[in-house]
Amino acid sequence: MLAEDAWSELQRLGTVRRFRARSVMLRQGAPGTHLLALTDGLAKVVCREPDGATTWLAFRGPGDLLGEVSVFNGTTRTADVVALSSCTAVVLEAERFRRFVEQHGLVMDLMRQTLSRLRESDARRAELQNVSLVVRLARSLLRLAELIGPNGVRAPVRLAGLTQEEIAQAIGVTRNSVGTGLQQLREAGAVETARRVITIRDMRTLRHWAALE
Known about the structure:
- It is a single chain.
- With 213 residues, this protein is an alpha+beta fold.
- It has helices at residues 4-12, 68-73, 94-103, 107-130, 133-148, 164-171, 175-187, 203-211; strands at residues 15-19, 24-26, 34-40, 43-48, 54-60, 65-66, 80-83, 87-93, 157-160, 191-194, 197-200.
- Helix 5 packs across helix 7 (175-187).
């Protein structure tokens, strides 16, 4: 994330656009003509493979830039960004964004952000091999909660728009396995569930599950 003052200034340079839940915000293979500064809502980043399979890459929330790598490098987009809930974002043209980055000396900040995301991806791949299902699920829910409230997360937190299939894709398990994990977290009093809604009721309990190995 950019510093607060840079983020505020960046938003003033673009045009506000709203996206319906489940709509494609950025499309894989399209040219990097613009980027999005996400100000409200949750989105997922997924890569479509040549064989038709879809690989989950990340969740994104308020304060995140979307599509900045292709804009800065002048390459086509390597993934789809799809709105999980209703989203609001500021659309910035590529050249305007590049000027903004150069004028404010933000090249290193963006490089650090890219490296941080790569380390995050590496850590999650290690989780898939070494951490139990319910622990992975608890950690994923905590990350989503932190995207919504990065300045301090307190229960209850309502995560809307997610399907169990999407959660399963994110943590590398089947949909039925997600159901089993959610049942454990419900019985522990950490969460409540409804159709496409997970409410975190007890943050301390969820953090306890997330800390297990």
